[in-house]
Amino acid sequence: MKIKKASFITSSSDYTQCPPTGLPEFAFIGRSNVGKSSLINMLTNHGKLAKVSGRPGKTQLINHFLINDEWYLVDLPGYGWAKVAKSEKEKWGAMIHDYLKLRENLGCIFVLIDSRLDPQPIDVEFINWLGEEQIPFALIFTKSDKQSKNKTQSAIAKYKRYLRQFWEELPPTFVTSSMKGEGKEELLMYLQQLIST
Ligand code: GDP
After folding, report:
1. Is the CB of 37 under 6 A from ligand 1?
2. Does some domain include residue 1?
3. Considering the entire predicted model, what is its pTM?
4. Is the dihedral of CA 161, 94, 82, 36 positive or negative?
């Protein structure tokens, strides 16, 4: 797939406010600073579609972008800001959980993981929740340019071993670098596949 057109549609504070469900949609989520905005901008060939390096406490909204007049790319608010109050975290949880469970045209959620880190409890908890709820997802290991290929591969193998404690079957995985453009074609091909099925 080539992304020829990408435009911001709306920000919603609740899944009921999201655009009509006539088009398929795919969402991206991850810990703050994992590289989600950079990845969205890389995929859409757009320098500034998603804002890079957000601040803690910024408004936590579900952002819809229309791609090629064909599908929605959804930028979900990042989790894991240490400085965010508990009440904010709970609000985030309810909003995201409702969206993920109830949004009927959601085809897949892409969970971004920093390829340099060992499995982090906050990510694993979220991944396990997705598995329990049977919500289709894929993993994206980001910032691969920050270390050698070998290191990234062994970090991913370690991650998979860790998840196998809980799950027999693991989701599709991708490796990306928004700096180098790595993983872009693979992700776009996968999205095309999901749209066509
Ligand atoms: P977000 O908070 O998840 O949206 O993360 P951002 O996209 O804002 O990125 C956080 C920081 O990581 C910024 O300083 C980016 O320039 C940097 N970054 C994001 N992706 C990459 C990548 O693939 N490679 C490198 N080297 N840095 C990246």
Report:
1. yes
2. no
3. 0.95
4. positive
Q: What is the number of structural domains in the chain? A: 1
pLDDT in tens, 5-17: 999 999 999 999 9
Q: What are the structure tokens assigned to 174, written together? A: 């991708």
Query: Which residue lies with its CA nearest to atom 15 of ligand 1?
Result: 35
Token duo for residue 102: 């109830």
- Find the CATH number of the domain harbouring 139: 3.40.50.300
Q: Whose CA is nearest to atom 18 of ligand 1?
A: 35
Residue from 28, 32, 33, 140 to probe ligand 1 pocket by mutation (most atoms less than 8 Å from CB) = 33
For residue range 114-160, what is the model confidence (pLDDT) as tens digits?
Answer: 999 999 999 999 999 999 999 999 999 999 999 999 999 999 999 99
Q: Is ipTM beyond 0.95?
A: yes
Lowest mean pLDDT among 86-90, 127-131, 176-180, 193-197: 86-90
| Domain span at 45 | 6-196
| Cα separations in angstroms, 185 against 36, 69, 148 | 17, 20, 20
Cα(196) to centroid of ligand 1, in Å?
Answer: 30
Helices 36-43 and 184-196 pack at an angle, to 10 degrees, of: 70
Whether 76 maps to a domain, the answer reads yes
